[in-house]
Design a protein that fits this description.
This protein is an alpha+beta fold. It has a domain of 89 residues. 50% of the residues lie in helices and 12% in strands. The protein contains 22 helices and 15 strands. The strands form five sheets. Strands 4-3-7-6-5 form a five-stranded antiparallel sheet, with no helix packed on it. A three-stranded antiparallel sheet has the order 8-2-12. Strand 9 and strand 10 form a beta hairpin. Helix 18 runs antiparallel to helix 22. The longest helix is centred in the C-terminal third of the chain and has 59 residues. The chain is elongated, with a radius of gyration of 55 Å.
Length: 627
């Protein structure tokens, strides 16, 4: 078989009759997807504000993973309190991080910068006198401040210099989320470096050119110079943090692609179905009513009646019905009634729209149960683990933002120690089975307490300090209670001892009074008819003796025994009671030692007549008049 060469004519004749099929990837939505990244950002912003499902997904993904900020245990309390006040009270850090997440999941990019608002002055170039910009009277012409010097020693009038003074106050420190639509990124595909330039928004430009005091007092002066030169502002990479959603390696990697990009076609399709539903509702929701003369077997109204006259009479009857609902109309022939439309419910595209809404949620990488809930949403489901891992990665980005940008800027600006923070352990609430297993492993000693605390989202060091503090408080409370109890017991014992001593004293006094009443006549005789009460006399003698030395006490008692034996016995008894209450008791009468005696010391006699003996109890005799 001969082989002929392929010529252009042959190729054209072969391809002329080939059937060309349409692009399999082409649809109507493809015509509206922007090719410019800035236009894509505008599309994403509009869709975020108008699509309820998309906004609900992004809100949950940005708010749910953010937990409390935990400080390292090595940080002292004062530094911790300082940062806690700055982050939560001044910067409202949780709300700021939620805003960062909205930019991250909507645009795929979140660009953050730190700015300290300076105190701006207008300075006289002649005398150097400065006045705050907000207090100065000036005219802003050709990007220059024209004013008159307010110093009494200077009469300069002309252009003033602008000077900024940094004020290290947290009220002047601002964290700013830049709009990606106003930023251009020059990406170097060889080195991977990015150069960021900021295009001034029209509102700021108009404020600067109009000489607005608030704008001129707060914006960096480099922005004013950029407006004057009609150029963009080159941003410092050291004062910029670009949080980017992971994207493919491609030519322009300066910008990350929005994660909601796969949902744009479904959103377009959903909007088309919504427009169809809107048209169906407007056209078919309310039925159209009609009446007509009904034909019977013996009468054909269309051929034997004047339909124009019938129509006018029907309209007249309808008007009467509207005026008087109880009006009764009389018709010579039957009236037919029919409704047209009213079948909007059958034509609605609700099932297709529900399917598209679920497709939009799934295109964002989020399980349907995470948004709508459901019985399959449990801690053991695979979808839960996928979402949890995504949240953990996102939390790592936010932690890097805090530790490598926000906190270093605060430390540098406010001259406070640099610290490291992290988020409280993130766990799904219904992961109870895993937590129970951890507790069982800890009980058998298979895992440490620190590991258990870590899995439970608890700071081990903080808990240890809290436990020690609680134990010390409990110990102090127990010691206080025991001391109080001991004090109460001691005081009660003292009261009881005092009561017992008082009772004993009363008993001893009563016993002494009884004996005095028995020997009243003898005592009166021995004491030479004293004026005072006999009990008081004995009491005074005993009280006077108890404070004397032992030798003198013995001597006095010996003399008393010889002179007044009844008084001696009673004094000896009372003195014995007093001495028994003292720590060291002294016998009322001691036998003196034979050693170391003075030559002239008298001793107690050993004769029988020197001893005083009381036999039995002496009773008082009957007085006159008694039987």
């Amino acid at each position: 078989m001969p082989v002929s060469p392929v010529t252009e004519e042959l190729l054209s004749s072969m391809t002329r009759d080939v059937v060309r099929y349409p692009d399999p990837f082409f649809d109507l939505a493809k015509n509206f997807i922007p090719s410019n990244i800035k236009t894509l950002f505008k599309f994403c912003k509009n869709i975020f504000y108008t699509n309820s499902y998309l906004r609900n997904v992004i809100n949950k993904m940005t708010q749910y993973p953010i937990t409390d900020i935990i400080y390292e245990s090595s940080i002292n309390i004062k530094t911790r309190e300082t940062y806690d006040k700055i982050l939560h009270d001044d910067l409202k850090i949780k709300s700021f991080l939620i805003g960062v997440g909205m930019d991250y999941y909507t645009y795929g990019n979140s660009i953050i910068t730190a700015y300290s608002i300076p105190k701006r002055f207008l300075t006289c170039p002649k005398c150097g006198h400065s006045v705050p910009l907000t207090e100065a009277k000036f005219k802003f012409r050709r990007f220059k401040f024209e004013s008159s010097c307010t110093s009494k020693k200077c009469s300069y009038s002309g252009t003033f210099k602008v000077e900024d003074s940094k004020i290290k106050s947290i009220s002047n420190f601002k964290l700013v989320r830049l709009n990606p639509e106003n930023i251009d990124i020059d990406y170097n595909s060889i080195t991977g470096d990015n150069t960021y330039t900021y295009n001034m928004p029209n509102k700021i430009k108009k404020g600067i050119m109009a000489g607005d005091v608030n704008t001129l007092n707060t914006v960096p002066w480099a922005f004013v110079e950029a407006v004057e030169k009609k150029k963009a502002v080159k941003l410092d990479n050291k004062n910029l943090y670009h949080l980017k959603y992971p994207s493919l390696s491609e030519e322009n990697m300066g910008w990350a692609k929005p994660p909601i990009l796969p949902a744009l076609k479904e959103i377009y399709y959903l909007q088309t179905l919504r427009r169809g539903n809107e048209a169906i509702i407007n056209e078919h929701l309310v039925p159209k009513k009609s009446i007509f003369p009904s034909a019977t077997g013996s009468l054909d109204p269309f051929s034997k009646m004047n339909l124009g006259e019938w129509s006018s009479k029907m309209k007249s009857q309808l008007k009467k019905w509207k005026v008087d609902p109880n009006h009764i109309a009389i018709f010579p022939i039957p009236i037919g009634y029919q409704e047209l439309g009213g079948n909007a419910k059958m034509l609605m595209l609700t099932p297709e729209m529900r399917f598209l809404e679920e497709s939009i949620i799934n295109s964002l990488g989020v399980p349907l149960e995470f948004i709508k809930g459901g019985t399959t949403w449990t801690g053991s489901s695979v979808s839960l683990r996928i979402v949890e891992n995504g949240f953990l990665n996102y939390r790592e980005h936010l932690r890097d933002l805090l530790n490598y940008f926000i906190i270093p800027k605060l430390s540098e600006y406010l001259a406070i120690p640099k610290i490291s923070v992290y988020f409280k352990k993130f766990k799904m609430n219904d992961d109870s089975e895993f937590k129970q297993i951890l507790i069982q492993l800890y009980q058998i000693g298979a895992i440490s307490r620190n590991r258990l605390h870590e899995e439970m989202g608890i700071n081990s060091e903080e808990e240890r300090v809290a436990i020690d503090r609680a134990a010390k408080e409990d110990l102090d409370r127990n010691i206080y209670q025991q001391r109080a109890q001991a004090t109460i017991q001691g005081e009660s014992q003292i009261i009881m001892a005092k009561a017992q001593a008082k009772a004993q004293e009363e008993m001893a006094a009563q016993s002494l009074r009884t004996k005095i009443s028995l020997f009243e006549e003898e005592l009166i005789a021995e004491l030479n008819n004293p004026q005072d009460d006999l009990f008081n006399v004995i009491e005074k003698i005993a009280v006077g003796l108890k404070g004397m030395p032992d030798v003198i006490i013995n001597q006095q008692l010996q003399n008393m025994a010889k002179a007044t034996p009844i008084t001696f016995g009673l004094v000896q008894e009372r003195l014995g009671y007093y001495l028994s209450q003292m720590p060291q008791t002294v016998a009322p009468v001691e036998t003196p030692s034979t050693t170391n005696q003075a030559p002239n010391q008298k001793e107690i006699g050993t004769r029988k007549e020197d001893q005083v003996e009381i036999k039995g109890e002496k009773h008082k005799g009957k007085t006159k008049g008694e039987a």
